[in-house]
Amino acid sequence: MLKHIKTMKISEIDLEEKAIEAIQGCLSGIPIVNRVNIKKEPGSGRVSPDLLVDLEIVGPKKNWKIQELSNESEVSLGQTSNIKKLLTDRE
């Protein structure tokens, strides 16, 4: 059986624009994402540029207990505790 392969040429600018549109489209449906800022960071040499996505996450604050976090994220209780401590130390 013969398969038809179609080759399509797309410029870097068009590809970048389509990627940004796709990212914004995916994130626009998430109610806790308030603002999306997408920046282009130049790559080095032959490496293509990176798209950096900054998000503003909003929503009601919830006081989580370690056990709830562990269950919800399906991560061990010890690892959850370590992550909570690391994040608390950053504040």
Can you put this structure into words, describing what you see?
With 91 residues, the chain is α+β, with helices and mostly antiparallel strands. It folds into two domains: 49 residues, no CATH class; 31 residues. 43% of the residues lie in helices and 19% in strands. It has a two-stranded antiparallel sheet. The longest helix is centred in the N-terminal third of the chain and has 17 residues. It starts with 11 loop residues before the first helix and ends with a helix.
List keywords for this structure.
single chain; 91 residues; two-stranded antiparallel ribbon; alpha+beta; 3 helices; 19% strand
Please provide the count of β strands: 2
Share in helix? 40-55%
Number of domains: 2
SSE-based structural type: alpha+beta
Count of separate DSSP helical elements: 3
Q: Round the Cα radius of gyration to an integer and report it.
A: 20 Å
Anisotropy-based shape = elongated
- Beta-strand share of residues: 15-25%
Distance between the termini: 62 Å
SSE ordering: HEEHH
Strand order of the largest sheet: 1-2
Low-confidence stretches: none
Q: Give the biggest sheet.
A: 2 strands, antiparallel
Average pLDDT metric: 79
Which helices and strands, and how do they pair?
Layout: H1 12-28, E1 33-41, E2 50-57, H2 66-73, H3 77-90
Antiparallel strand pairs: 1-2
Short description:
With 91 residues, the protein is α+β, with helices and mostly antiparallel strands. It is built from three helices and two strands; from the N terminus they run αββαα.
